[in-house]
Design goal:
This protein is α+β, with helices and mostly antiparallel strands and 157 residues long. It contains three helices and ten strands, in the order αββββββββββαα. It has one domain: Sandwich (Jelly Rolls). Helix 1 runs antiparallel to helix 3 (115-150) and helix 2 packs across helix 3. It starts with a helix and ends in a 7-residue tail after the last helix.
């Protein structure tokens, strides 16, 4: 992913400070919080971030399980490209991090104007989404198996 985004950032038509900007994020700082409006996606140039979800349990009790940890070269926040208006998770810097923030609308406009780069970018985003979906499916199956065993339901299926 980093190579395709690097090509985008090096293109003089995709303007720094207008279409993208670099941020130094101290450890422990939220990049964004679940439920906040989203317009940008991020490339991790250096450091690590933790993606944390929210689950509501009985009686309104909420827990915040870690969903994933991402490192240099990975992207997050890409759902803004596909109609997601609010952030679906909280992302926090695990250690000091350097991030590239890319305006989602500017990126889509660029992809429309430069379909050869746009195709490679969107294909790579789809590969990332599929890999994350597969990982989520594996986790879901493990949780389901645990629940069936814990509640002794498996023998009745």
């Amino acid at each position: 992913m980093r190579d395709v985004i690097r090509e985008l950032l090096d293109d003089p038509r995709f303007l720094r400070e207008r279409h993208w900007r670099r941020h130094e994020v101290p450890a422990g700082t939220d990049v964004f919080r679940r439920g906040a409006p989203g317009r940008s996606l991020y490339l991790i140039e250096q450091g690590r971030v933790r993606v944390v979800g929210e689950v509501e349990l009985e009686a309104g009790r909420r827990i915040h399980p870690g969903v994933d940890e991402l490192a240099a070269g990975e992207v997050f926040g890409e759902l803004v490209l596909f109609g997601e208006a609010r952030r679906s998770a909280t992302v926090t810097a695990v250690c000091d991090a350097r991030l590239v923030e890319i305006d989602g609308k500017a990126l889509l406009d660029y992809c429309d104007a430069h379909p050869e780069v746009g195709y490679r970018l969107l294909r790579r985003f789809m590969e990332i989404a599929v890999a994350r979906l597969r990982k989520t499916n594996r986790k879901l199956m493990h949780v389901l198996a645990w629940g069936l065993q814990t509640h002794a339901i498996a023998p009745h299926l």
